[in-house]
Amino acid sequence: MLKRSSLFLCFILMFCLAKAQQTEKLYLSGTGNDHTVNWEFFCTEGMNSGKWTTIPVPSNWELQGFGKYNYGFNKEENKGKEQGLYKYKFSVPATWKNKQINIVFEGSMTDTEVKINGQLAGEIHQGSFYVFKYDITKLLKSGSDNLLEVKVAKHSANESVNNAERKADFWIFGGIFRPVYLEALPESHINRVQINASASGIFEAIVNASGSYSRIETKLTDKNGKVFGFIPDLIVMPDDNKNHFISYTLPKPKLWSPEFPNLYKVTFTLYDDGKPVHVITKKIGFRTIEVRERDGVYINGAKIKFKGVNRHSFYPSSGRTTSKKISIADVQLMKDMNMNAVRMSHYPPDGHFLDVCDSLGLFVMDELAGWHGTYNTATGTKLFKEMMAADENHPSIVFWANGNEGGHNRELDRLFPENDLQKRPLIHPWEVFGGFETTHYREYNYGIGNYDHGHNILMPTEFLHGMWDGGHGAGIEDYWNAMWNNPLSAGGFLWDFADQAVVRTDKNGILDTDGNHGPDGIVGPYHEKEGSFYTIKEVWSPVFVEKREITAAFDGTFLLENRYAFTNLNQCSFEWKLKRLKADGSETDFKAGKANAPDIKPLKKGKLQINLPADWKNFDALYLTAKDVYGKELFTWSFPISLPKDDAAKLVVTTGSSKVDLKTSATAFEVLANGVQLTFDKTNGLLKKVENTKGIIPFNNGPVLQEGVNNFKNFTTRMDGQNLVITSTFDRKESYNTLEWTIYPSGWLKMQVKYFPAAYFTTFVGLNFSYPETEMKGVTYKGSGPYRVWKNRMKGTRLGVWKKDYNDSATGEPPWQYPEFKGYYANLYWCDFIGKAQNFRVVTDREDIFLRLFTPKKSKDTEYDNMSPTFPNGDISFMNGISAIGTKTQKPETTGPMGMKHVFYDFEKEPARALDMTLYFDFSTKN
After folding, report:
1. Which residues in 199-212 are b (16+ Cβ under 10 Å) and which e?
2. Burial class (CB in 10 A: 0-12, 13-18, 19+), 364
3. How far apart, in whole angstroms, are the C-alpha atoms of residue 193 and residue 190?
4. Partner residues linked to 38 by β-bridges
5. How many CA atoms lie within 13 A of 824 on its CB side?
6. Residue 680 three-state SS
7. Which of 194, 375, 398, 455 has the smallest CB count inside 10 Å?
8. 436 in Cβ contact with 403 (< 8 Å)
9. Whether the predicted pLDDT of 15 surpasses 50
10. Is residue 511 one of the residues assigned to a domain?
């Protein structure tokens, strides 16, 4: 009987809700850059100005070929001050009679005057990034067309608006850039709902309503539509502002977090005389935010390390006009980097971006605009209320930010706790405020070392400022290790997500970053992944795999640390693969399997056991992949089984039927072996010329020591069996660096250099050769790849065989072609150099050798020249130590220990204690 009554109640409820009026929407514009509607348009200055034409709405008019482009730092007072005039005719459905009709603008840049049928809809709105609306019910004509006229000024008549958002370090655009629509409300309706759903199950709401009504009904349903909570008989008892307070405790709701973004739907129904008159729905998540002074930030009782990034609302071909599709892509990329947080920089985002953060799971810091400058109090108060009304119920938002880097109007601070039912913490980015130290871009020794002696919660809202290939991944391992182990650290937010490169319709469609102002992203303008993407993905993996060497004693055990906040690792999955790495890069020869996920609770350590086949030692590499509870790859780690010496033993051919012939002149040793002719300088021992039966291979002039002295002297020759040995003579004072060449009957050439760096501190150490860049077609190599590395960005690559075609790409510049070709590559085994005329192979039997391919273009740095991506001399190098790279705001050595120079002891110049570089060369025609 009870079941029948419950079913009957649900049926009646569904019937009543079906009769209740929902808020109706009629879009006058499109919904994003992938769906627009043409309006009439007139631009007052710049491109295509002075004439009526049409423009897609929503859009930024610069991207449609109107007005003037300007970056926020632009000093020309008369640039970018144009206005846009819009016209659009529309009709109102006949069914909207006797309803309140509002016109809603989700975002317009900047001062926006709205007229309906020639009459002002209300006061001019000032401020770009905020949802605003007018009640236009009395201005509308029924049964005929209505004329909407909008005048938009790119720069505001309110100087505080310009100071807060128009003079900032980002592109400044104009136009109606977010959707415009009409909303129709019944005469009695709900105006606003504020919700607080806590982890304890307490559900609180404040419902503000208008008109005549008798009660409000509240219902919660889960993702399957099952009723989770039902408050059917709330008698209306409003306060003076017609706010109705609801409080209800629900049993054990599924909590919201980035790891488990559980959402519920709450429906509010307004009744009058027993009849439903208006219904609205919201998606909510149950979660609790707690800031514990001098401790940290706790979400649902778990202490959180925020792995975050700053994100502009931006797309190259449409400026600040985006779409839900773009929001989904952005959030998925962030989560693919194992991020759990995003900061809105430096203004509130599109509503659909917050919807996606709610549904896919990202913590959000939402920000009232203010970049060094501030809104005045009256303007800021109005815009704050608009931001709060639009964004307040998103469970993803866990922080508010009042401006950025000095753009904090402190008179607005009190508004946040007074108006936020959830009482989320307020941040002043770049300041010590509210118990948080958020200072930007502190050097490692200050930002970490000094932090260790401080008392505030540490959470830089911007750190490791990316530019070109610097920052982001470069330095993050040092910073994160310190952050992870510091109990006062709450993590931080990288600057920033994507390169701000805009399509210049005034310059034949080029992508413009305004020099070095915009190329700050981890991904390119169209989401091209830079090397730092994968470094961050590994460093921020919530499954931490302790480093280990795979030796003959390996028993399949890995030590893991669970760096999740809410997930047990037994909810994840683990896969392994053994590969033989063939020269063509094929993966046909492998074995694979799965491992049982270990029971390791959050923040605990444990073991993962892999049951390897008996022949596992016959493979070259072991790969371990961790996947999250949804099957998404967290990261794949690679572990070498075979070492360079093993490959060298297989690849290098020392025997042959031909004889090694030596001719000595006054200046050179000329050697012929199996069709390969080699010429060495008799004085310094350098390789001067390589030739085979096909012709000259232009690889020569080496080895030249980098940050060492080429004091090879007194060369002698001898036969060691069938092998010719050309060797320098060691002298502790004058020729302590030594060079030895061995030429085999096969034509293979062995080079062994024992050397000492010239200084105690060195930027890099290694050996250089010359090879014309114009001759290079590409390489195939065995080592870590496919992305290049820096001394302070070693994570994110994988051991394999990589084929790379030559390109001249520079990070952060057109054509955004990744992976780049030029640069350093780690853990070299061998490399096939593919030339336009001939190929050749180089093999090493030493571990930890870096391959250097030419010198990347040095993009225009700031006046401080902080990145300093220094490279050795020559063209192709084989290095024992490589250089680091800095960030836009820091030199390499201030990003942590990995960014500092190498340190080598003098070794007292004893040959047995020198650095040892051994290479083998195959210049035969078979390559």
Report:
1. beeebbbbbebbbe
2. buried
3. 8
4. 56
5. 28
6. strand
7. 455
8. no
9. no
10. yes
Q: Are residues 371 and 388 in the same domain?
A: yes
d(CA 697, CA 91): 76
Residue type, position 730, single letter: F
Please tell me what DSSP assigns to residue 592: E
Final residue before a domain boundary, out of 134, 163, 185: 185
413 in the same domain as 357: yes
Q: Do the Cβ atoms of 519 and 813 come closer than 8 Å? A: yes
Q: Same domain, yes or no, for 421 and 454?
A: yes
Indicate the angle between helix axes 476-485 and 531-539, nearest 10 degrees. Answer: 20
What's the mean per-residue pLDDT of the chain? 92
Distance in angstroms (rounded) separating the CA atoms of residues 749 and 723: 10
Rounded-to-integer distance, Cα 580 and Cα 507, Å = 50
CATH for 36: 2.60.120.260
Specify the pTM.
Answer: 0.94
Residue 450 pLDDT? 59
Distance CA 265, CA 192 (A): 16
Contact in structure between 693 and 716 (CB atoms under 8 Å): no
In a domain, 463, yes or no: yes
Token match 């089984």: residue? 641
Whether residues 774 and 828 share a domain: the answer is yes
Q: Which CATH number do you get for residue 508?
A: 3.20.20.80
- Which residues have C-beta within 8 Å of that of residue 237, sequence separation ≥ 6? 244
- Domain of residue 676, residue span: 651-753
What is the greatest pairwise CA distance in the chain?
114
Q: Which residues pair with 739 in a beta bridge?
A: 753
DSSP assigned state of 808: -
**Closest to 775 (Cα-Cα) out of 700, 828, 673, 827:** 700
What is the predicted pLDDT for the residue at 469?
A: 94
Residues 207 and 298 in one domain: no
Distance of CA 290 to the CA centre of its chain: 27
Pick from 144, 92, 88: nearest CA to 115: 88
Asked whether the beta carbons of 825 and 834 are under 8 A apart, the reply is no
Distance CA 70, CA 169 (A): 11
Main-chain phi, psi angles of 694, to 5 degrees: -90, -20
CATH number of 258's domain: 2.60.40.10
Amino acid identity for residue 509 in this structure: G
- Tens digits of residue pLDDT in 574-619: 999 999 998 877 777 889 999 999 999 999 999 999 999 999 999 9
- Pair 327, 225 in one domain: no
- Contact between 756 and 706 (Cβ < 8 Å): no
Same domain? 850 vs 896? yes
**545 close to 637: Cβ distance less than 8 angstroms:** yes
Cis previous bond, 640, omega within 30: no
Q: Is the dihedral of CA 627, 632, 635, 639 positive or negative?
A: positive
End-to-end CA distance of the chain: 85
What domain count does the chain have?
5
609 lies in a domain? Answer: no
Count CB-CB contacts under 10 A for residue 296. 21
Is the pLDDT assigned to residue 16 strictly greater than 50?
no
User: What single DSSP character describes residue 357?
Assistant: I
- Domain boundary among the residues 284, 303, 338 is at 284
For residue 550, what are its two tokens?
């795979």
Lowest mean pLDDT among 3-12, 36-45, 709-718, 808-817: 3-12
Confirm if 921 and 840 have CB atoms less than 8 A apart.
yes
Q: Is residue 709 in some structural domain?
A: yes
Are 180 and 294 in a shared domain? no
Report how far apart, in Å, the C-alpha atoms of 397 and of each of 106, 288, 324, 351 are. Answer: 19, 11, 18, 12
Residues 6+ apart with CB under 8 A from 281: 265, 266, 267, 268
